[in-house]
Amino acid sequence: MQTLQAYIHGLLQPYNQATLHISDLAIQRGYGIFDFFKVTEGKPMFLDDYLARFYRSAERMEMVVPIDEAALRDTIAQLIKANNLPLSGVKIILTGGYSSNGYDPEKPNLILTEQPLTLPDQTIVNNGIKVITHSHVRELPTIKTINYAMGIRLIREIRAAGAADALYHQNGIVSEFPRCNFFIVTKDETIVTPAENVLPGVTRKNVLQLAARKYKTEERTITIADIAQAREAFLTSTTKRILPIVQVDDKIIGTGKPGEITKELLADLIELEKRQL
Amino acid sequence: MQTLQAYIHGLLQPYNQATLHISDLAIQRGYGIFDFFKVTEGKPMFLDDYLARFYRSAERMEMVVPIDEAALRDTIAQLIKANNLPLSGVKIILTGGYSSNGYDPEKPNLILTEQPLTLPDQTIVNNGIKVITHSHVRELPTIKTINYAMGIRLIREIRAAGAADALYHQNGIVSEFPRCNFFIVTKDETIVTPAENVLPGVTRKNVLQLAARKYKTEERTITIADIAQAREAFLTSTTKRILPIVQVDDKIIGTGKPGEITKELLADLIELEKRQL
Known about the structure:
The structure is a homodimer.
Chain A: E1 5-8, E2 11-14, E3 19-21, H1 25-29, E4 32-40, E5 43-44, H2 47-60, H3 69-83, E6 87-95, E7 109-116, H4 122-127, E8 129-135, H5 149-153, H6 155-160, E9 165-170, E10 173-174, E11 181-185, E12 190-194, H7 202-212, E13 216-220, E14 222-223, H8 224-229, E15 232-237, E16 241-248, E17 251-252, H9 260-276
Helix pairs in contact in A: 7-9
């Protein structure tokens, strides 16, 4: 089995030897940001968007990325070359650094990892997924922090419900999944996604742009009542692309099968990805 | 300088060599809980309360502590003996463990560290502190998770305001500080602390019990307007004990000097700690 390389402490080294001292603020205080993009045949997909978001997250958490964007791009290229994987995900993590008092941030630690990526099983894409709803708004929803305490805590509840994910809402206004954005297609074929309290997903942005070529699109408030009236629903993410949602809690969406517009947008997204190669 | 020992991966080892692999969910997803108690002359203070809270936090995050309470007490005793510090804080951290997919929890990693502790400077106790308010409620306030993203992000704002800490509130209803509980003394000498959206602090509990011997005590809603009417205000924490608050935002509390009841409760708390020895 191939030994994967990671980037940590300023150099490439074997992933399985990549460690942080326990004084790091990620371990002490859950303090860090990250980003994650897909690499197909050695080519990072939509890298500009992901890097822009990474530096924006760092700035909004008052963290300084130890290398500039050109050097980070070089490092990404070296990592991809070293690992030489056909399809992978690259994760860039920036932690709060080794803190002498366990609270005040120091010079951040920058870590890059690359792992083989598995796309969603075609059966799941064909059948669609059930999701549950959960009352919650992330603390800093527009920043890609490492805080997934609520999402991970919900894993058992999601599985117990026979569901694939949990859609956050507050007072019936829905926002996002722990790791995915949410869309509905209304009866009049408008593509709608929540405007507030969401991470600005790169796939979300791409899907909005693709949809706007053919349909009316809106970023606005979506309520649970709106979902019950929707013709179609789906989620978007870097690794999952577009997954049709056929059930939200006890409510069947549309015909209970993946919608035609959802499938069309997924085909368009795959085309868009191919054009990145 | 003495080499401090820490407990990690099932054994005592030098603190400066204590590392976690980057696949740990604390680093990947900020997933972990912890607790922290004071050790005076080798004697842990109020250990039963801290351990009960630690195991409760773990359970509520669906994490299993790898050793039982008796074994954990033994490990704490070994660590304290090895380091032999006159006054210290012991931190117990439980992380989500080495996750193969970076999201699903595995067997948690248990870490114990011990560091010399510095009590607040007497000048600060004598003069009291200024605090600012910030609109925020922690995600899982009753669980001692490692997530301090908001608190750390506020460090700069707190310093810029010449303040010592930030008091969280939502719609004017106050809850707690990032690492401390909040109390007011009303004009009729009732000791009041917020009832909801707060971490159940051990010092908070001790102070409530000490106060109840002499005064009426209440756990209830406190608004920012209530603070403006308060005779005294203070915060409590394991390391800070009781710190008088003399200003909240632009509002001077009482006479602008530490209150008499606050000072009395601090003396009572120090007495209570001595009785633990």
